[in-house]
């Protein structure tokens, strides 16, 4: 029977790592001859021991020169794997965190939480890279890295698919396009080396991977294909004139006006612009029934074409106008608001009829979020605010509200250019609303009518669920206004 050697150095494995066995027990592994000497030194073997003596060291699968490890390649592969997992983890958290905290619906928050959880799993997988590409002390490290790479593939593929719909540049494009290529490379590498080996119950692990993949696919499909609830928006909007108040010692009449709105539906909404206007108009009598013959001339004084036989319409004049609720505020489901206004008229004002109109532009809160700065007005005639300034002789005098608008589905936000909502109000032109990629970063302000991209505005309004509602009321002035010539 031969003499049992003190040390056995096993043949290199697929990565070039050789196990070191002493007295039948694995005491370590070495990538190189120098590392083998250090291991033996820590165990008390003298540096002068003869490594070529078969009675001292038994070399299997190659002699002392057989060290096939390529450290630069192994470390580079580990570094690329680590960076890819960390980048994917950060991307998942950036996508999921806003939805998990601020999404309006519970389902959207669940989807956001799934993305955050996926990012945390990839952080654990990134930590497992050091062991999997090192000594592999933890049996499950390879499976964890495989799971992290598997999570990255459907997310990056979906982001590319969504980006192709608009093909707009976004900084995230520099992340998810390389990330998709990385995920294919990482999965190919890990599957080729069967990274799941060493897991105590590989079938259960495979089932878990498939379940996580299915969950990710479902959440992505829900996020990309889900359209916010189709429940209609219902409002109660009213304008009501009160009883005119007169005073014998005054030359004026005070006409109360009550404006009322209630969100009678189940979806909260932003009020992005609003306006109320009180008009005064006069009619001249047409005893001969000439009103029908001259209806084409009268139509220019009306919003809706009408014809009346015994009355002729005249031009309308604005008596009072302004905001009712205020841009940037919102109405929760069931919330109501009312405001009292007073219209003051001279007793001899030449009006036979008063008309009040109230309108609101709203945006569904289940479609998007508007940043807080939108509610702070800026003035187009203010030279100190160069970003929004436009000469009054060119643009008129406008009050402008401007801010970022975000989709409730953050997957859309990272695959599109930023969108901004702009509301404009002035006494002469009334309210208007635009949603587009314009951010007032240059002169030539399109919102003042110079270069409106009507197709983009219409598309974005539809996506964010913006619309307008209006109501009106009329009051005959007979009995409280003494018009010239009435006696």
Describe the structure.
The chain has 487 residues and is α+β, with helices and mostly antiparallel strands. The chain has 3 domains: 7-59, no CATH class; 71-225, no CATH class; 235-476, no CATH class. 34% of the residues lie in helices and 26% in strands. It has 10 helices and 20 strands. The chain has helices at 33-42, 71-102, 106-132, 141-166, 173-192, 202-225, 295-299, 392-395, 410-414, 454-464, and strands at residues 7-9, 18-22, 25-30, 57-59, 235-241, 245-246, 252-263, 269-281, 283-285, 311-313, 317-322, 330-331, 336-346, 353-364, 368-370, 378-379, 399-407, 419-426, 430-436, 466-476. Strands 8, 11, 12, 14 and 20 form a 5-stranded antiparallel beta sheet that branches. Strands 15, 16, 17, 18 and 19 form a 5-stranded antiparallel beta sheet that branches. A 4-stranded mixed beta sheet has the order 3-2-1-4, covered by helices on one side. Helix 2 (71-102) packs antiparallel against helix 3 and helix 4 runs antiparallel to helix 5 (173-192). It is rod-shaped, with a radius of gyration of 37 Å. The model has no long low-confidence stretch (mean pLDDT 83).
């Amino acid at each position: 029977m031969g003499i049992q050697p003190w040390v056995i150095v096993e043949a290199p494995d697929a990565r070039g790592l050789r196990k070191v066995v002493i007295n039948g027990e694995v005491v370590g592994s070495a990538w190189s001859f120098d590392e083998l000497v250090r291991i033996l030194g820590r165990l008390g073997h003298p540096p002068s021991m003869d490594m070529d003596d078969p009675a001292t060291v038994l070399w299997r699968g190659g002699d002392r020169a057989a060290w096939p490890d390529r450290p630069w390649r192994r470390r580079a592969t580990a570094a690329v794997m680590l960076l890819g997992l960390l980048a994917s983890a950060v991307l998942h958290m950036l996508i999921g965190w806003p939805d998990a905290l601020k999404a309006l619906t519970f389902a959207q928050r669940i989807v956001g939480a799934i993305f955050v959880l996926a990012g945390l799993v990839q952080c654990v997988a990134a930590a497992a890279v050091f062991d999997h590409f090192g000594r592999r002390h933890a049996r499950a490290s390879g499976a964890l890295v495989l799971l992290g790479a598997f999570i990255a593939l459907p997310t990056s593929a979906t982001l590319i698919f969504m980006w192709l719909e608009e093909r707009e540049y976004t900084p995230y494009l520099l992340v998810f396009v390389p990330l998709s290529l990385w995920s294919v490379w990482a999965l190919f590498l890990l599957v080729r080396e069967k990274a799941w080996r060493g897991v105590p119950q590989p079938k259960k692990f495979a089932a878990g991977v498939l379940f996580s993949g299915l969950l990710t696919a479902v959440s992505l499909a829900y996020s990309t294909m889900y359209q916010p609830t189709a429940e209609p928006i219902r409002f109660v909007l009213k304008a009501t004139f009160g009883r005119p108040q007169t005073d014998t010692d005054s030359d004026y009449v005070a006409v109360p006006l009550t404006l009322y709105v209630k969100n009678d539906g189940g979806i909260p909404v932003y009020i992005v612009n609003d306006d109320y206007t009180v008009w005064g108009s006069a009619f001249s009598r047409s005893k001969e029934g000439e009103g029908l013959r001259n209806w084409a001339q009268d139509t220019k004084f009306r919003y809706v074409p009408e014809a009346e036989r015994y009355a002729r319409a005249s031009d309308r004049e604005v008596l009072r106008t302004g905001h009712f609720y205020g841009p940037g505020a919102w109405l929760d489901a069931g919330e109501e608001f009312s405001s009292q206004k007073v219209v003051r008229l001279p007793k001899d004002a030449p009006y036979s009829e008063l008309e009040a109109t109230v309108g609101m532009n709203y945006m569904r809160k289940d479609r998007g979020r508007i940043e807080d700065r939108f509610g702070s007005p800026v003035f187009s005639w203010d030279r100190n605010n160069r970003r929004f300034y436009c000469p009054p002789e060119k643009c008129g005098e406008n009050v402008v509200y401007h801010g970022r608008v975000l989709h409730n589905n953050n997957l859309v936000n990272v695959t599109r250019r930023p969108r901004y909502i702009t509301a404009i109000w002035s006494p002469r032109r009334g309210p208007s609303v635009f949603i587009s990629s314009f951010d007032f970063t240059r002169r030539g302000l399109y919102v003042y009518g110079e270069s409106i991209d009507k197709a983009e505005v219409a598309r974005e309004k539809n996506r964010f669920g913006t619309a307008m509602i209006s109501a009106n009321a009329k009051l005959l002035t007979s009995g409280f206004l003494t018009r010239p010539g009435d006696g």
